[in-house]
Write a structure and sequence with these properties.
This protein is an alpha+beta fold and 595 residues long. 26% of the residues lie in helices and 23% in strands. The strands form 6 sheets. Strands 1, 2, 3, 4, 5, 6, 7, 8 and 9 form a 9-stranded mixed beta sheet that branches. Strands 10, 14, 15, 16, 19, 20 and 21 form a 7-stranded mixed beta sheet that branches.
Length: 595
């Protein structure tokens, strides 16, 4: 489940230049329009300055006004030369929740458009708080049932209006919540857990209600390790240390796999990959720490990790390290993305987290993956399955880009609303793609999510016909009621649109799995292929989505991405439109009032 962390605004500029399509993709020419005197080769600082100036010069479109300051989070350069600068906003020095926007420039740094989260002015009606910080902290502690930290004044521009508010982090034995309290009325505006759990409270309740246990089938640990993807070489007496080494992971779910590890000295190894920014998996040893440094390092004298069974603590670690590195490789090979946040930093994981924790999640506080061992009842093995890792790390990618947020959260922690559902959908889409990229014979690539979890329905969710998931009640098509749908159930709308874009409607068998994708309007959709569909959705996420993007916004975002990549008259562009229409998302039924 997506549990976003509403972070404080970071002022530092994080600059990235990322490829936007797959090999062989044809890109549209540069945008036309008035060009500035600045050359296309201008450095990132000048691009940010040009985008900021354009935002204020086009205030009627961008919504930027007096008192606003824009702080760049990301600078993206397309192969055709266009630039996109993602900003967060402060108003009179206060962080603005839901004030994010992306300013689009052509190769000459002329303004071409904006994608904005708040379509209203972010100025609150009053700038004076009636509650003190201590009073707000007390209300937050009561709401989240934990210990409150300091209360920070912010502007909450989410939900169609703006209000002066306090943001408070509340900690309990299960983690942290971000609570936003209205500074004038004292009303709790939002109360959101900060971690990203794969299994929602609603799903866990349904599993218990049906008496169902999750007992994933394991792979074979006796097979030869993969040779593909092994970087570095074995250590020798003359090898300088630390150095890359070729290890073997005997995993729970994907058999024996090759792992790049670190030789720390002759005959001594650590489960840390120097060829992938130092990506590492550690042992939480039953603690619930959110500090990766507190985890115990996995070390060994044989460079063989695990035995294919839970009797060896390193078996789950081998699965986790394999899944994390394959996810990194997928994003780098496919999009040129260097790490989860595209900053060439390590991805991290901790296994054996907590006591009897039946879940796995992306934790933005730790900036790492945390895996429980299962509770021994509902879930009997660590949740270190490949597509779970790909799903959860994609939440990290979304957290580093659009920061899609749920609209509201109930008392049990279940989340609702289309931006949160879109977040879950993107995690399923790219998690599925990680499987296709890894192409491991012990985890056959497919458009199913959680097919190895041992569920009676044989999968948790599926992209071709989402409503076949009865456990979560996933939906196939959009309706006005989707706003009130739990995010995993609502994710079916955009996941279905993606599948139709990639593979088309009707019956199809891929890697031995039979699919039969229906359409809302009984139309026939001919797919453009998974590679092109994935390129379009990734470009849409990184360029044209913001924290409040809903399904109709996502339609527009993917159309813009298809136009960029293939042209407005292309088959790809037309198929994007057809795929969304096939899940009942059209220009004609766009809600009048959003955000």
């Amino acid at each position: 489940m997506r549990r976003p962390h509403i972070r404080s605004v970071a002022v530092a500029i994080a600059v990235t230049t990322a490829a936007t399509g797959l090999a062989g993709t044809a890109f549209a020419g540069p945008s036309t329009g008035e060009r500035s005197a600045v050359s296309a080769g201008t450095n990132a600082s000048a691009v940010v300055d040009a985008a900021r100036a354009a935002a204020f010069a086009h205030a009627s479109a961008t919504g930027v006004s007096k008192g606003d300051e824009l702080h760049a989070q990301d600078v993206m350069t397309d192969p055709e030369g266009a630039r996109h600068v993602r900003f967060v906003r402060t108003y009179n020095g206060l962080d603005v929740l839901g004030g994010d926007l992306v300013v689009h420039l052509d190769r000459g740094l002329a303004y071409t458009g904006v994608t904005r989260a708040a379509d209203h002015a972010v100025q609150p009606a009053t700038g004076k708080a009636r509650l003190t910080a201590d009073q707000a902290a007390a209300k937050a502690a009561q709401a989240a049932k934990g210990e409150a930290g300091g209360a920070q004044l912010v502007v909450d521009a989410r939900g169609g209006s703006s209000a002066l508010a306090y943001q408070v982090t509340v900690t309990d034995q299960d983690g942290t919540n971000t609570v936003v309290v209205d500074a004038v009325t004292g009303k709790v505006r939002s109360n959101t857990p900060d971690s990203d759990e794969f299994l929602s409270p609603k799903l866990l309740d349904n599993l218990r209600k049906h008496g169902e246990t999750l007992d994933p089938a394991t792979g074979s640990a006796s097979e030869a390790p993969e040779a593909a993807g092994l970087l570095g070489s074995g250590a020798s007496a003359v090898t300088p240390y630390p150095s890359a080494a070729k290890g073997t992971g005997k995993t729970l779910f994907v058999g024996s796999v090759g792992l790049t590890t670190t030789a720390t000295s002759k005959g001594h190894y650590q489960l840390k990959d120097p060829s992938r920014y130092g990506t590492e998996t550690r042992d939480a040893k039953g603690s619930q720490t959110e500090k990766f440094s507190a985890g115990a390092k996995f070390t060994n004298t044989t460079d063989v990790w695990g035995n294919g069974a839970t009797s060896n603590r390193a078996s789950a670690a081998a699965d986790a390290q394999y899944g994390i590195t394959k996810t990194l490789d997928f994003y780098k090979s496919t999009f040129g993305r260097k790490g989860i946040a595209n900053n060439s930093k390590a991805a991290q994981g901790m296994v054996h987290w907590g006591s009897k924790v039946a879940n796995a999640f992306w934790d933005p506080t730790c900036n790492c993956m945390l895996y429980g061992d299962g509770d021994g009842k509902t879930f009997k093995k660590p949740l270190v399955v490949l597509d779970v890792t790909g799903h959860e790390l994609t939440h990290g990618v979304v957290d580093a880009t659009a920061k899609l947020q749920p609209t509201f959260v109930d008392a049990r922690g279940n989340q609702y609303g289309e931006p949160g559902a879109l977040n879950e959908s993107l995690a399923d889409i790219f998690g599925s793609n990680v499987e296709f990229y890894a192409n491991n014979k012990n985890d056959t690539p497919d458009y199913l999510i959680g097919e190895k979890l041992g569920l009676s329905q044989k999968f948790l969710r599926r992209l071709d016909h989402p409503s076949l998931d009865k456990l979560e009640g996933t939906i196939d098509y959009w309706s006005p009621d989707t706003y009130y749908t739990e995010v995993h159930a609502g994710s079916g709308v955009s996941s279905h649109a993606y599948y139709l874009l990639a593979e088309g409607s009707g019956k199809k068998t891929i890697n031995g799995v039979a699919y039969d994708s229906p359409t809302y309007n009984r139309s026939t959709v001919k797919g453009i292929g998974r590679s092109k569909a994935t390129a379009i959705f990734y470009r849409a996420l990184t360029r044209y989505m913001v924290s409040t993007t809903d399904f109709h916004d996502a339609r527009v975002a993917t159309l813009k991405a298809a136009k960029d990549l293939y042209g407005a008259n292309s088959t790809e562009y037309k198929t994007v439109d057809n795929a969304w229409a096939a899940v009942n998302v059209t220009a004609a039924n766009t809600p009048a009032a959003r955000h």
